[in-house]
Amino acid sequence: MYTVALLDPISGEPAEEGELCLDLSRRPLGLMTGYRGDPERAEAAMRGGFYHTGDVASRDGDGYLTYIGRTDDVFKASDYRISPFELESVLIEHEAVAEAAVVPSPDPLRLAVPKAYVTLVAGAEPSGETALAIFTYTRARLAPYKRVRRLEFSDLPKTISGKIRRVELRTQEGARHGGEAPPGPRGVTEFWEEDFPSLKAVSEDKND
After folding, report:
1. pTM above 0.85, yes or no
2. Which end of the chain is more exposed for a tag (fewer CB within 10 A), N or C?
3. What are the strands of the beta sheet with 111-120, ordered from one edge?
4. CATH of 75-206, one of 3.30.300.30, 3.30.460.80, 3.30.450.20, 2.40.10.120
5. Are the C-beta atoms of residues 120 and 98 closer than 8 Å to each other?
6. Burial of 149 (0-12, 13-18, 19+ CB in 10 A)
7. Start-end ranges of CATH 3.30.300.30 in the chain?
8. Which residues have C-beta within 8 Å of that of residue 120, sequence separation ≥ 6?
9. Tens-digit pLDDT profile for residues 93-135
């Protein structure tokens, strides 16, 4: 039997959205005792009387849990918590999108905004027209604070096992647009919301 708790990653207090943890006061028989040869990592994973999985989830009014993402992938934009997993799930529903990875892109106003790195299906062109179509599609399916505001057509870096290396994309974004230096130049396959005045007109009509 596993006793599950959701803990705020910052305060460590119980929350309706937070890190998925297992209560160690009734330690599950199938849970590891620690990391062999790495006591510091084991202590971090078992801190505070809970086993910390590194996964973030939310609990609804009926007690059902919904997976959001990994703690190191979830980020804040304008003080809202953003789940790359949720945005990517919407992106890959677009007919032109084969794969997508969402990371925070530094922004002077919002601190960070969601940026999507997108690999297109065969035959789709990495053009402004395609970018506009994807922006329009996602805006109709996401709350305003979750909107993808930047997009770049690119192959996605992956591990040997095929897992997308978001950390590499986050580092790339930080180097390009973060810090005190002026933002680096955008490539020809990178597009921002402000590149398309028609999107702003739609936002003003909807007051968002």
Report:
1. no
2. N
3. 97-107, 111-120, 150-153, 190-192
4. 3.30.300.30
5. yes
6. buried
7. 75-206
8. 96, 97, 98, 126, 130, 153
9. 999 999 999 999 988 888 899 999 999 999 999 999 999 999 9
